[in-house]
Structure formats: structure tokens, C-alpha cells
């Protein structure tokens, strides 16, 4: 696939590099220096290159949006029309200091993004994983037990694309349902991040996922 990276920092830089190593054609865009984008593309290898957000988005089969939530408007303006595009968002709706979720429980970064680009096909993915583990998971390869990675969205085809890319990155994709589920998975991502950074001295919190099936209707 041709993949446009909008935001080439910790997440975009690493996930883009992994996609390139998995054989995709990647365009890195949106960093504060062009040098950084060129270096990323060189190091990622394959058919990677640096480009503008517009170049990254317009020719892409899928776009990864990996910017701070407060930068959505700026990056979307630079990317141009995303109608019909598969847009994977790993963004979390964090405050300016990156210490708290600002819309947790009532909405999510992915849902807010979908309102801004209603004709794009938004999938929330890769936000439940700290950037530090991405290379290790990818490099562990096919034989390792794959960690699960939840994703959600409203469009079936874009979710298939997301699942394929999640698998290429070394994870086991778990479909968590429609996009509105992102408001529950995004706070979960913070928990995972906190545990990753604070280790066993971190907060004791647990999440339990259950699959609810509707009761069978009487025939
Ligand atoms: N890091 C994680 O472990 C993690 C995990 C899950 C979800 N997330 C979410 O993923 C998203 C991205 O996080 P991140 O850690 O990858 O952030 P990051 O490292 O700060 O990357 C953001 C990218 O945006 C670029 N950028 C910022 N301001 C810019 C500007 N004015 N003009 C052009 N480019 C600009 C940065 O450029 P420079 O590289 O030049 O600074 C960088 O490439 C966030 O929403 C975060 O909440 C992160």
C-alpha cells in the first residue's frame, strides 16, 4: 500500500518505518524540519520518502494521523481533501501539557476527527500502544505470541485495511466495534502508557473487556 504519515514523531516515525520495512511505500510528512523527514525516510529504506502533508495524503491508500490533538486543524488544512481516504488515527485527546485526556468518556480524538473530516473513513488504531514497544513487537517476528491491538471504526473496508496494517506491524488486530468505542479505548491507552512508564510502582488499575451478545430473540 501507499501510506501517508501525517506527523512523523515518536509514533508516526516508528510506525511509518515499520510499514516501510513490511514492504509498503511510505511518505513521511509533518515535522518541524524537512531534514528530519528525509533522515527518517532514508533510515526506513524501501520506497520511503519525505513529502508535504498534501503529497503524503493525496496519493495514499491509507493515512496515519499521528499528531498532538491540538494540531489536528493545522495538519488537516495542509493535507487537503481527505474524502474517501482511510485515515488511521493514533492520536489521544490530551491537554497542552500532555498530562490529561480532555474529552475522555464523552468523546474521543477519533470521533472528533471524524466530525472534522466527515467524508474520510476514520479508524482509531495504534493508540493503545506506547511507541517504545513498537520496534520490539515488529522485530519479534512471526513466531512470537502477538500482542493484541484494538481498533474501531464505522467503515468495514477501512477496518480491513487497518487490520492488515496492524498485522504487518506484528500485532493481533482486535475489532472493538464502531468508532464511538474509541472513547473507551483511548483512556485505556493512557493506562497502558502509565504502566509502561511507571512499571510496578505505577497505579494499580485494571480494565476488564467483555463481549456482550444480544439475547436471542424468540422465533
Ligand atoms: N508517544 C506515544 O507513546 C503515544 C502512544 C499512543 C498515542 N500517542 C498519540 O499519538 C499522537 C502523536 O504522538 P507522538 O508521541 O508521536 O508525538 P510527537 O513525537 O510530538 O510527534 C508529533 C509530530 O508532529 C510534528 N509537529 C508538531 N508541531 C508541529 C508544527 N508546528 N509543524 C509541523 N510539525 C509539527 C512533530 O515534529 P518534530 O518531530 O519536528 O517535533 C512530530 O513529528 C499524539 O496524539 C499522542 O497522544 C502517542
Can you offer a commentary on this structure?
The protein has helices at 10-21, 34-44, 53-58, 72-79, 109-116, 134-140, 156-168, 182-198, and strands at 2-6, 25-29, 49-50, 62-65, 86-89, 121-124, 148-153, 172-175. It is an alpha/beta fold and 219 residues long. Strand 1, helix 1 and strand 2 form a beta-alpha-beta unit. It is globular. Bound molecules: NADP nicotinamide-adenine-dinucleotide phosphate. NADP nicotinamide-adenine-dinucleotide phosphate binds at residues 7-12, 30-33, 36, 66-69, 71, 90-92, 94, 127, 130-131, 189. NADP nicotinamide-adenine-dinucleotide phosphate is lined by residues 7-12, 30-33, 36, 66-69, 71, 90-92, 94, 127, 130-131, 189.
Task: Spell out the key features of this protein.
219 residues; 8-stranded mixed sheet; 37% helix; globular; binds NADP nicotinamide-adenine-dinucleotide phosphate
Concise structural overview:
With 219 residues, the protein is an alpha/beta fold. 37% of the residues lie in helices and 16% in strands.
